[in-house]
Amino acid sequence: MARLAANSYGKSEVRLTKVVRNPDRHDLIEYSVNIQLRGEFAASYLTGDNTSVLPTDTMKNTVYGLAAQNEFDSPEAFAMILAEHFMSRNPQVSEAEIRIAQTRWNRIKVAGKRHPHAFVDCGPEKRTCAVRKTRSSLSVGSGIDNLIVLKTTDSAFKGFPRDPFTTLVETDDRIFATSVQANWEYGDTSGDWNQRHDEVRTAIVETFATHMSLAVQQTLYAMGEAALAACKSVRQISFRLPNQHRIPFNLEPLGLKNTNSIFVTTSEPYGDISGTVVRD
Amino acid sequence: MARLAANSYGKSEVRLTKVVRNPDRHDLIEYSVNIQLRGEFAASYLTGDNTSVLPTDTMKNTVYGLAAQNEFDSPEAFAMILAEHFMSRNPQVSEAEIRIAQTRWNRIKVAGKRHPHAFVDCGPEKRTCAVRKTRSSLSVGSGIDNLIVLKTTDSAFKGFPRDPFTTLVETDDRIFATSVQANWEYGDTSGDWNQRHDEVRTAIVETFATHMSLAVQQTLYAMGEAALAACKSVRQISFRLPNQHRIPFNLEPLGLKNTNSIFVTTSEPYGDISGTVVRD
Amino acid sequence: MARLAANSYGKSEVRLTKVVRNPDRHDLIEYSVNIQLRGEFAASYLTGDNTSVLPTDTMKNTVYGLAAQNEFDSPEAFAMILAEHFMSRNPQVSEAEIRIAQTRWNRIKVAGKRHPHAFVDCGPEKRTCAVRKTRSSLSVGSGIDNLIVLKTTDSAFKGFPRDPFTTLVETDDRIFATSVQANWEYGDTSGDWNQRHDEVRTAIVETFATHMSLAVQQTLYAMGEAALAACKSVRQISFRLPNQHRIPFNLEPLGLKNTNSIFVTTSEPYGDISGTVVRD
Amino acid sequence: MARLAANSYGKSEVRLTKVVRNPDRHDLIEYSVNIQLRGEFAASYLTGDNTSVLPTDTMKNTVYGLAAQNEFDSPEAFAMILAEHFMSRNPQVSEAEIRIAQTRWNRIKVAGKRHPHAFVDCGPEKRTCAVRKTRSSLSVGSGIDNLIVLKTTDSAFKGFPRDPFTTLVETDDRIFATSVQANWEYGDTSGDWNQRHDEVRTAIVETFATHMSLAVQQTLYAMGEAALAACKSVRQISFRLPNQHRIPFNLEPLGLKNTNSIFVTTSEPYGDISGTVVRD
Questions:
Q1: End-to-end Cα distance, chain C
Q2: Is A166 in CB contact (< 8 Å) with chain C?
Q3: Average pLDDT for residues A33-57, to the nearest whole number?
């Protein structure tokens, strides 16, 4: 009567800190690694036969073991090492998916100079990547999570349809704030992942700042176009742009006037805009 | 050079409280509503033309307006009302997706009697639903989020493969704790949604308690089988079962023995097991 | 020029799971333990001399070691064991403060019967305690964190002063929801901690349900009075009652009427009411 | 039998965004404001008489109203405006306490130039202040919350006492990471609050980076000394330094050696060190 359809398992949030002790400075690598394997695991689901089930505890150990055995300078490179490891040693696995989120650190400045081994957390933004390897394919994607940006002008929203439940007033000049989530796919599987990430991130951030926005949707598309123009290796990019609304506070009942300067910062509800821009 | 592929937009986390004031008791409804529309919205992305973009603020108002105008006794019923509303009034929309998470409340007991209008929050668990309506189809699904369960025995994990990075010891008797996320699809679009949800939830919880578990995967499948058996209207059910590990504390360096009674509670990393069981 | 005033150190969020395997049923104990020591630790601050600094890692081990060596049936009892341990073995310590938060679990019901070893998380509410031991004193307190309650009527707020910034309308009938934080002190250091906690919690919850509330402040005081009446060992009780507002949604612009039934659920800002009730 | 001891009430997490539109650039102010009043409020607790209870909703309006009516360039200045307002208009209030947490934003750089009206969130760190005004006194304090810093070397912990539960190994070279919470009191009530905050923050961060740490305690004291030296107006400073542990991963069971480079990042449990340094 019942049948197992999709299945997948792995270890999530394996948190790795690696210190590379160069003569002149230390490099700090902080990743949260997620591993998911798919393949011939039905016996475990159906009868509890774990003969083919590589323990998730072993996956965790593997993250630390391979981090010790290998040099790498990007999450994409490390994700490929992990994917290759699991695929080459586990014939029962048909697909390995490795996702990594990197915590960003800035060097502390002491008397204006970047310190060789002291760091300060630079925000909620994460650099992410996703590597998927099957018996016949390899795909590499990168991304950004929780890049919070805000502009105080050059954003409008008008010309929208009205129905009996519409109360929103049209505006030529509103605050536009969002937490950018972007994920892009590369058309190849090798390259300078750090330079590529920089190119895409810069395109996104600079477009956000300079775009004359008639809608969040339009800015999303403009950021996608800019990312594709900035990094030729990207073949498509998807965005989710949840609004972080700043709502003009109604000062009239207080006998005051709001000259587009006083806003209530809210967490929910929020507009939630998504879209994918592909190279044509 | 660039082209808009998928797009979607809407309002998330619209938090609704509705009180139904019956003569003998008040009913408390608390939903967090998420709305996503798909359709002919390219003009907004490409040129900032918002002629067809129903504001997300209007969507929010619609939640409160339709909650006032309609009686409903389940999130599924309210989600269908919302989906029908957006589809019937917006020809530019090709698909409306409504997801609702319901906060669960118990009535406070006073001197052993359930109080008519006072409630206590009964946990992190949410009842969820997802309704998707297109020009030619309607699908209804329900779910559970964050149902945290734990059993102190009747769980083993052994017979797994070992590689050079494997350190896990086999065990006949471990703690099994997880935060159940379950989502199921119904084969029809009408019925007693509350009874169905109860049937599936009871099947999941009772199976968790009584199953002799040889693997999380096996318990997942058993819960899926039980859910399909308990509610004939369910055509498939998917689970995600992230482990909430309790790791035996090594008391030996302290000169003590751990008789399978003292554990460290950890949040990460965690095993993360998924699977879908379909009616055959 | 500088001088060390207050100092304190310890280990926080030591998460312990203990399973007591009785013949007929298992008991599940889940505590998060916080330890802070005060005393002669100035040398560590001033010169990095750690001769008297019991490592916080040792404190963590001590939680697991003493949990294995001792039987206890309440967080208060375990906190006293820990406080006694640190004070008796560390003459440099002048005060040990142990705070414990207990996760609450209900037994899963299978076919109406409480299961002997399977449990379900019953909410965000925590049972807490605080034990402070010095060379000459011992104090025991207990508490509740995050007990979320809501009543749909029997709550008013009117007769308040108005100034030019006041826009709130008086109301005879509003929703009253809060997340109760209560902390009370006992007048003695032994007793049935579980029964006492039950007495106080029941007094709080039943008073919340049945009190005709003219202000959150008034309900706070009534709950305090009821707690003092219910448990003679309590000498004072403090509450913090942050509002969880439900704000009537203005349906008029939508051409509808709100019959005190449709509300927006908000997280912030929130009213935040505190008070202490002492036995006279 | 019962008596009201301490009482306090107010509004928490009033989130304000203010945009100052200068000709050449916009300034962005984002505060979360907490207000607590103390005074003659017993009637509300005892009988529900709200004659003297300024609604917390009015407090919220006051934040937005005074933000519109006043120019200010620091949270300290705005907190003093709020405190003065509540004290001067409410004779029943004996103390007003205003605490503000400021979100920090950096200007987005476009082609290397700081943008006049686009910003990026620069991290979890908050700038805080606390102003307390009574009928006879005014105190101003400032602080930092959640400043996350990490150094990969120049941190040791050894020479500590060992007991039967001690397993920690002594180390000459460990990672030291913490989330700094600092609160300091000024000896006066006027000055350049921004410059003072910069002076203290720089002293803390540079000391963290350059101090040869024999204990978290010692670094705490050194940071306090540096802060007092950097800003003459500070009369005392308190720190809480919760460890963010990086634990060397034991690679030996994997047949590998850990050359002080591979660490597990953990959230709990954590060492939790506090201390106050006062000007002598």
A1: 46
A2: no
A3: 98
Distances (CA, A) of A65 to A30, A71, C17, D263, D269: 15, 12, 29, 11, 24
Q: What is the pLDDT of residues C81-132, one digit of tens each?
A: 999 999 999 999 999 999 999 999 999 999 999 999 999 998 899 999 999 9
User: Rg of chain B's alpha carbons, rounded to an integer?
Assistant: 23
Predicted pLDDT of residue B1:
87
User: Looking at residue C225, what is its pLDDT?
Assistant: 98
User: From CA B265, how far away is CA D175, in angstroms rounded?
Assistant: 24
The answer to whether D146 and A19 have CB atoms below 8 angstroms apart is no
What pLDDT is recorded for position A1?
87
Average pLDDT over residues B101-129: 96
B216-230 vs B193-210: helix axis angle to the nearest 10?
Answer: 140
DSSP A252: G
DSSP states along A137-188: -EEEEEEEEEEEEEESSSB-B-S----TT--PPPBSS--EEEEEEEEEEESS
At D250 the three-state DSSP class reads coil
Partner residue facing B164 (CB), from D167, D255, D267: D255
ipTM for the assembly: 0.96
| D240 shares contact with chain A (CB less than 8 Å) | no
**How far, CA to CA in Å, does A254 sit from each of A134, A261, C167, D59?**
64, 15, 8, 12
Catalytic residue, chosen from C18, C26, C56, C115, is C56
Q: Which of A101, A100, A167, A90 is nearest to A134 (CA)?
A: A90
At D151, the amino acid letter reads: K
Chains that touch B (3 or more CB pairs under 8 A): A, C, D
Per-position DSSP letters for C138-182, written without gaps between them: EEEEEEEEEEEEEESSSB-B-S----TT--PPPBSS--EEEEEEE
What count of residues does chain D have? 280
Q: Which of D56, D134, D152, D189 is catalytic?
A: D56
Question: In which residue are the tokens 């996760």 written?
Answer: C103
Q: Are B77 and B131 in contact (CB under 8 A)?
A: no
Nearest CA distance, B272 vs chain D (angstrom): 19
DSSP letters of B54-67?
--HHHHHHHHHHHH
* B69 has a chain D CB within 8 A of its CB: no
pLDDT tens track for D141-190: 999 999 999 999 999 999 999 999 999 999 999 999 999 999 999 999 99
Q: Decide if A165 touches C, using CB distance below 8 A.
A: yes
Kindly state the helix (H) or strand (E) to which residue C116 belongs, with its residue range.
strand C113-134
List pLDDT tens digits, range A112-152. 999 999 999 988 999 999 999 999 999 999 999 999 999 99
- Touching A: D residues 196-235, CB under 8 Å: 205-206, 208-210
- Whether residue C197 has pLDDT greater than 90: yes
| Assigned token pair, B44 | 């907004």
- With contact defined as beta carbons under 8 Å apart, do D205 and D144 qualify? no
* Contacts with C219 from chain B: Cβ below 8 Å: none
Rounded alpha-carbon distances, angstroms, from residue D259 to A86, D153, D254: 25, 13, 14
Residue B245 annotated to the active site: yes
Burial code (b: 16+ CB inside 10 Å, e: under 16) for B120-139 equals bbbbbbbbbbbbbbbeeeee
CA distance D99 to D35: 7
In the block, which residue shows the tokens 């409630």? B119
Q: DSSP string of B105-150?
A: EEEEEETTEEEEEEEEEEEEEEEEEEEEEESS-EEEEEEEEEEEEE
Cα C273 from Cα A155, distance rounded (Å): 40
D149: left (phi over 0), alpha (psi -120 to 50) or beta: beta
- The reported pLDDT for the residue numbered D1 is 87
pTM attached to this predicted model: 0.97
By the 8 A CB rule, do A28 and A17 touch?
Answer: yes
Give CA–CA dist B127/B108, Å, rounded: 20
